Amino acid sequence: MGRHFFVEPPNCYVTFTYGGREYNTETHENATSPQWPDSKHELAYDGQPISIDFAIMQRSAKENVKIASVTVKWDRFLPGLRKVADYLVTPLVPGVKNTAAIRVAATLQPQSMPKRPAGPRRKALFVGICYEGTDWYLPKCHEDAEKMKNLFCGHWGFIDSPENTKCLIDWRDAPDSTRPTLANIKAGMRWLVEGAMPGDSLLFFYCGHGSQQRNVDRREKDGFDEVLVPVDGKTEGMLVDDEINEMLVQPLPAGVRLTCFLDSCHSGGGLDLPYQWNPYMEEGASWHLDEGGVYADADVICVSAAAEDQTAKGIPRLGNRENFPSGAFSASWCVACEVHETQCKMNWKEMLGIVKEVCDDFNWSQNVQLSSSQKFDLTREFNFHDCIPNSNDKKGPVVNDGMPGFPRRNRLMDPTFSGFKVP
After folding, report:
1. Within 249-375, where are the H helices?
2. How far is the C-alpha of 143 from the C-alpha of 131, rounded, in Å?
3. pLDDT digits 0-9 by tens, 180-222
4. Whose CA is closest to 417, among 235, 244, 213?
5. Which CATH number fits domain 2-107: 3.40.50.2300, 2.60.40.150, 3.40.50.12780, 3.30.230.10?
6. Peptidase C14 caspase domain location, by residue (predicted)?
7. Could you tell me the pLDDT band of residue 80, with boundaries at 50, 70 and 90?
8. CATH of domain 122-421
9. Would you name the residues annotated as active-site residues?
10. How far apart are CA 155 and CA 152, in angstroms?
11. pTM score, two decimals?
């Protein structure tokens, strides 16, 4: 169980009693809301409703003063699902605003989930393609892949080493082994998932062209497969969403976490995951079932730059931030990560809300999309290394089980980009 504060006075901490034992968070010297150090406690849980009284204390040289209180009540937990909620506190002394709040997050950890004794692995694959020297030229993707690698390895627990991270980028002098050809991207995906075991967390980032081609197995309701475009796509062909799912998603066992970012056109649904959501849905809307999706065992989350019928935008440098990428989606995601790190811990719904707001503020007409192999609570705290258990009854193609179908238009369009027609 962790918690996060939104109270103004400095030198505050929280204490509560549970099961006859007192728990305290750390005191962060002189700190005010909202940035506080992580603090977690493991509590026993017997399956019954929980009610805990939290006291917000202010530490001083003479005495500790109770400045606010709040009671947290939860009726039930689901194993592996992170429960996150904000609660307004009751001020007890002057100076505490009546809007002050405490965020409480808890996860019920299943006892039976096996883990590798040597500890979890963290692996990442980054792909950036500019198509230099072709009529597909897409500027800045080289730099964007490098900048996102620096973000994820520098701030989010991934490791920038040859054993843990691979980059496929079509630099002018790149050796053949690291060019993002169709064969190398497929080999990189196989490397990423090879030997994955429960507890591992994996990351895939792609920045380059995305497009569509006509679906031949009639499984896609809109008549099109989403594709990624390798640097040699004109001669070797595209990387189709069905293949990506087969290589990246289906081999992973339950207990493995994979997070994917697709900064490309037509990338919504690019992994053929069964559950879809985006922040442009009606308030309160939850997951929709993608009838062209495929159920899987692992905990796979994909964030895509645009809907299936939209293009992804490139932008001038956002606010003169040299460390920010030039892709509108990637730059917006960096903004959300910065807010999460420096202002307040956010959940997945809030993170995508920030990306939406940035895109809307700059009139970038692209709608960020979230897809998942598991139907999780959208208030699940944002990170790359937690994992929820498999809740799907089967693997394989989706058969509509009564959930709302994900709306797709049957648009027999002629998909193009940079003058190139996808066959």
Report:
1. 328-342, 348-361
2. 13
3. 999 999 999 999 999 999 999 999 999 999 998 877 655 555 5
4. 213
5. 2.60.40.150
6. 121-372
7. low
8. 3.40.50.12660
9. 209, 265
10. 6
11. 0.72
